[in-house]
Amino acid sequence: MSKTYRLFISHSWSYGENYDKIVKMISDQGIEFFDHSVPKGDPIHTNGTDKELHEAIEAKLKGTSCVLILAGVYATYSKWINKEIEMAKKYNKKIIAIEPWGAENTSKIVKDSADRIVKWQGSSIANAIIELG
Fold first, then answer.
1. Which class for 2: exposed (0-12), middle (13-18), buried (19 or more C-beta within 10 A)?
2. CATH code of 63's domain
3. Residue-wise pLDDT tens digits, 52-107
4. How far apart are CA 25 and CA 28, in angstroms?
5. What is the DSSP letter of 34?
6. For burial by CB atoms within 10 Å, which of 5, 14, 91, 95 has the most?
């Protein structure tokens, strides 16, 4: 019987394409998972307060086995990714940092917080999920 992993895939909404690619890469590796991420279409993103968004993210993140964060340099400047890292640590969730394809500069904050740093490829991401999840 295969395991279903409970994942929180962090993403900045302006980088939605990368989020979609990560979901596809994980699926293509045959990993069964439940995505705990707050959906982009959730009205809390456009109509909610920062406090409401924080509570929504925390509620989703609490029930996961691990958190995947794209370690692009933009992450260093994202207040939400920094908050997600804090929440992951608060609930003892494993963090997998994914280095973007071809990136020369990556986020030191994300990589320093990570339990595992992987490259932008499905097998590396899947192996980290299996090991940590």
1. exposed
2. 3.40.50.9200
3. 888 888 998 999 999 999 887 766 667 788 889 999 999 999 999 998 877 777 88
4. 5
5. E
6. 95
